[in-house]
Amino acid sequence: MSYSDVIDLLMEQHDEIRRLCAGVERSRGPERAQRFAELVRLVHLHERGARTVVHPATRNGTGSAVGVARMLEGEAIERSVTTLHDLGTGHLDFENGFAALYRAILDHATREELDEFPILRVQVPVQRLHMMAGELHDVQVMDAA
After folding, report:
1. CA–CA distances in Å: residue 47 to residues 9, 35, 39, 109, 112
2. Distance between CA atoms of 50 and 72, rounded to whole angstroms?
3. CB within 8 A of 49, min separation 6: which ones?
4. Disulfide engineering: 55 pairs with which of 67, 84, 108, 132, CB 3.0-4.6 Å?
5. How many angstroms separate the CA atoms of 20 and 14, rounded?
6. d(CA 59, CA 102)
7. Whether the Cβ atoms of residue 39 and residue 17 lie closer than 8 Å to each other
């Protein structure tokens, strides 16, 4: 799949993460476990790529505080995902933990879209945003291997 720039790629990932969250929320049993495993994988890849490629670009310009805040949110989300993964989808506490995680993921994605992405659009040249899409893809492929 070809993306015009890194922001388009991230938006596509946000849509997929939202879809997976909704799928986990409405499923049960083995289906829930499978959907949650997919979510764990994508959240990890998304946050690894954002931490490596996107947030540094935001922090290098006028969006330093925004880049740091989004990075810290992403790290907290990854910790929550790991905790729930270790707990297991069948555990009694999974439901409440997942509800909190789902809200955190939605809030984080919205803040990236409303706060961080506009900064990138203004301060990063278009050609660099295109190159960053390739860098993000490479980081995520290497991390998935």
Report:
1. 13, 18, 12, 11, 12
2. 11
3. 136, 139, 140, 143
4. 67
5. 10
6. 26
7. yes
C-beta separation of 66 from 116 below 8 A:
yes
Residue 133 corresponds to which amino acid?
A: A
Instruction: Check whether 1 has a pLDDT greater than 50.
Output: no
- The per-residue pLDDT for range 32-62, each reduced to its tens digit, is 999 999 999 999 999 999 999 998 888 776 6
> Residue 1 CA to chain centroid, in angstroms?
18
Cα separation, 135 vs 141, in Å, equals: 10
Distances (CA, A) of 104 to 36, 45, 76, 111, 132: 15, 17, 9, 10, 25
| Residue 37: both structure tokens together | 């495993």
